[in-house]
């Protein structure tokens, strides 16, 4: 099954006395990343003029291409060159099931080179995530189990083999269709907007 793109958001604290050098350093890092297969875009912004907090983002096509960049000698040398003035303080990865529950006001890449960072809505409580996953999984599990039971001889197969077949069928349907659909449907409940004054 094809893997989804992975977006990495990094917050760095930058020495303000090295601002111009830091800008060149960041641009050099983006230029290096563009040379790697699977690179989809990158960018950086400061929270406000004069802020020491810089937000940097890059996106790769899948985990393998991301790891090739993150483990590369080029990136290690680039990080080392900025170690004296740019300190990494927070890293977020958007991938797998976490991405299904991201609020729409999250991090957005634009035009392969610029980045827009809006205020992120916190992930919904775990109990809400569990309910949404269960609402997606239960009816599909019932349906697939019923349909497979109509196949002559299927019920006589060993339990592990029956489970293997059903999960091989269910997993791509759940990941590719059902979970994205139901999380969009449940978005107002997962991410309720705060009332004014609250």
From TrEMBL:
GO terms for molecular function: monooxygenase activity. Residues 5-78 form the ABM domain. It comes from the Bacteria. InterPro entries: ABM_dom (IPR007138), ABM_predict (IPR038762), Dimeric_a/b-barrel (IPR011008). SUPFAM superfamilies: Dimeric alpha+beta barrel (SSF54909). The chain crosses the membrane at residues 25-45, 131-151, 163-187. Keywords: Membrane, Monooxygenase, Oxidoreductase, Transmembrane, Transmembrane helix. This is Antibiotic biosynthesis monooxygenase. It comes from Agrococcus sediminis.
């Amino acid at each position: 099954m094809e893997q989804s793109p992975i977006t990495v958001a990094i917050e760095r604290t930058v020495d303000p006395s090295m601002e111009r050098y830091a800008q060149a350093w960041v641009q050099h890092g983006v230029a290096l990343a563009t040379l790697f297969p699977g690179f989809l875009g990158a960018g950086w912004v400061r929270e406000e003029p004069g802020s020491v907090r810089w937000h940097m983002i890059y996106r790769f096509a899948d985990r393998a291409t991301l790891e090739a960049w993150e483990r590369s000698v080029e990136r290690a040398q680039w990080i080392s060159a900025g170690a004296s003035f740019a300190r990494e303080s927070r890293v977020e990865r958007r991938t797998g099931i976490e991405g299904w529950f991201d609020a729409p006001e999250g991090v957005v890449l634009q035009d392969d080179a610029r980045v827009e960072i809006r205020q992120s809505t916190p992930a919904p409580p775990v109990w809400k995530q569990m309910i949404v996953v269960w609402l997606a999984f239960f009816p599909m599990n019932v349906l697939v189990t019923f349909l497979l039971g109509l196949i002559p001889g299927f019920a006589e197969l060993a339990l592990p083999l029956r489970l293997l077949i059903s999960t091989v069928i269910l997993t791509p349907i759940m990941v590719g269709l059902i979970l994205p659909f139901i999380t969009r449907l449940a978005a107002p409940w997962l991410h309720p907007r705060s009332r004014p004054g609250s």
